[in-house]
Design a protein that fits this description.
Elements: H1 6-33, H2 53-59, H3 64-67, H4 82-89, H5 100-108, H6 128-134, H7 138-142, H8 159-167, H9 190-201, H10 209-212
């Protein structure tokens, strides 16, 4: 004896299959969003060249803008071209085996395959120029990279974390000419200085969806 009609049974099977597909897709999306490359602090990928920000930005005092040349004019903080590395290393440590990938890249014209540390999902829009121009330092998002031998992710880069700053930006705003001076500290309260700069510049960080999801 058939309990359900053939048509009902077909619909039931299709519905069950759809539920399985949706659960699988939901699990895949959750796994992607929760992957260390997306959210986890502490993510420290192995790079093709053991570049030390502590040595270059810290000990040698190189400005972030020397290598990341586009942050003040572009959405992106460009990874430096090999030619920038070779400006120094054509004479400095020119025979170091650690720098062989740099020399190979320079000779072949093929870029070094650096591993991105601070990854955002494709559906998130972030503009470096807007933040740098407003006086938000590299430190606020990237931490004290001038103290890192290997760069790691120090902030979650989650939507809640971004919104917290957009709704209370004062502690993170400094004079724009000091955004790459990573060890800078104001004489007084950072939030008070930030609030003053925000008033003077008329800074109004958006917190609507379309600001970051376009």
């Amino acid at each position: 004896m058939t309990v359900f009609s053939k048509r009902f049974d077909t619909h039931l099977r299709l519905a069950a299959g759809a539920i399985v597909v949706l659960l699988g897709a939901g699990g895949a999306i959750a796994a992607y969003l929760l992957h260390p490359r997306q959210l986890d602090t502490g993510y420290t990928p192995v790079q093709p060249v053991p570049y030390s920000h502590k040595l270059h930005a810290g000990n040698l005092g190189m400005d972030c803008l020397y290598c990341h040349t586009t942050v003040a004019q572009s959405n992106y903080a460009a990874v430096p071209m090999t030619e920038i590395c070779m400006n120094c290393h054509v004479r400095v440590k020119e025979k170091s085996p650690k720098l062989q990938p740099v020399r190979d890249s320079y000779a072949s014209g093929k870029p070094i395959q650096w591993v991105k540390v601070h990854r955002l999902p494709d559906y998130v829009y972030f503009n470096h120029q807007a933040h740098v121009t407003a006086g938000v330092s590299c430190v606020s998002c990237h931490g004290r990279v001038d103290q890192m031998v290997e760069v790691r992710q120090v902030q979650p880069l989650s939507m809640a974390w971004c919104l917290d700053c957009h709704r209370n930006p004062a502690p993170h705003v400094r004079p724009p000419e000091l955004v790459t001076k990573l060890d800078w500290q104001p004489e007084g309260d950072p939030a008070a200085l930030g609030a003053k700069l925000i008033r003077e510049k008329g800074i109004h960080p958006p917190d609507n969806c379309s600001a970051c999801h376009r």
